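DM from R.C. (forwarded with permission)

"hey, sorry to bug you on a friday — could you get me a structure for this? deadline for the figure draft is monday and I only need the backbone to look sensible"
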Amino acid sequence: MYKLEQLLEEILQIVEEKNLTIPVGISNRHIHLKQEDIEVLFGKGYELNKLKDLSQKGQYASKETLTICGPKSIIEKVRVLGPARKETQVEVTAGDAMKLGVKAQIRMSGDINGTSGITLVGPKGTVILNQGLIVSQRHIHMNEEDAKRFDVKNGEMVSIIVEGARGGKYDNTCVRVDSSFTLECHLDTEEANSMGLNPNSKVSISKN
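My reply, with the result:
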């Protein structure tokens, strides 16, 4: 019988040969704003200023930052991402939510109905949100060709396998398929740190 280590090496070799690994994108806490709130926080007619492009087409980190305020504490210099969205959304880690003193539900981006609120403070004003604070559900961006290659479909929940000294498996990872997406698995900083991942890391999918 093969030793376990040898078997794992052979599986990884097959995965690499079929190009079935997925780059990792690590997301820190951040904010998406609708235009109305941008103008309240930064001034009438204000537009976000691009700092750098992100991996997903059309998305970017802006130069602007805000302070988010909860019942227990605040977190300063939280990056705003552009472009403007239909609804304002604040994405934090579970640890951030505990520090702020709020309950943040695990949700996919854009699914904010019934979530907790939070207060945003900018240089020109303050926005009090009744909802919009979430911990992002870990997910994988891919286009239709990637979905065929990995034999998955939009909305499917899979597990991801992480190799290395602190590796393991993360269940409940949502597949998101769109023609505009670039292949990447999005984890927050806490998830990445717990398994020793960095921006150069790759993961693989398990449907078991």
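R.C.: lifesaver. The chain is about 20% helix and 45% strand.
me: no worries. The domain at 4-25+138-206 is CATH 2.40.40.20 (Barwin-like endoglucanases).
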